[in-house]
Amino acid sequence: MRITAKCKIAVDAMLDIAGHTERGYAISLPVVSKRLGVSHSYLELIFSKLKAAGLIYSHRGPGGGYSLAKKLGDISVKDIVDATIDPQALVHGLSAQLWVNLEAQMQNQMSQITLHHILANTPIKIDPTLETLGAKLVRAQEHKQPVKMPAKIPSRKEPQVLGPNSVFSFGKFILQK
């Protein structure tokens, strides 16, 4: 396993989101981009992976942004890394088993470190614009479950055709009558 810059940025972004979520705020992508010094488009790629993994929620509208989808203690560094890491080929060669064992130990260690542990030792400053706007977050447990769409959409009645819809069709229609 190779911990990339993308993984490190994802962990930093998740800490920023966690700090704001714990205080009842959602944080917007442009704010995270500015705070981390990372391009907006690059963060969009990372956030889409984190959202697909079920680690963050997005909130629309004024005061919207991103918040944690789970409790701080339920999100480990391994979860974040797994969501953002690109799959890599297995190691071949004489030392292959060594690398497999080291990766297993690293995975185990990362699974034991949660956002709660990191946030306890890392002070996160709340974006001052959120406090002045009075924006508040809809907590993760208040989210409604997504509405399931029916497997087959019921067919609608076909609209009644009163006549042709073009000049050419109208000419043919008149000639037929």
From TrEMBL:
<protein>
    <recommendedName>
        <fullName>DNA-binding protein</fullName>
    </recommendedName>
</protein>
<dbReference type="InterPro" id="IPR030489">
    <property type="entry name" value="TR_Rrf2-type_CS"/>
</dbReference>
<dbReference type="Pfam" id="PF02082">
    <property type="entry name" value="Rrf2"/>
</dbReference>
<dbReference type="InterPro" id="IPR036388">
    <property type="entry name" value="WH-like_DNA-bd_sf"/>
</dbReference>
<dbReference type="InterPro" id="IPR036390">
    <property type="entry name" value="WH_DNA-bd_sf"/>
</dbReference>
<dbReference type="GO" id="GO:0003677">
    <property type="term" value="F:DNA binding"/>
</dbReference>
<keyword id="KW-0238">DNA-binding</keyword>
<dbReference type="GO" id="GO:0003700">
    <property type="term" value="F:DNA-binding transcription factor activity"/>
</dbReference>
<dbReference type="InterPro" id="IPR000944">
    <property type="entry name" value="Tscrpt_reg_Rrf2"/>
</dbReference>
<dbReference type="GO" id="GO:0005829">
    <property type="term" value="C:cytosol"/>
</dbReference>
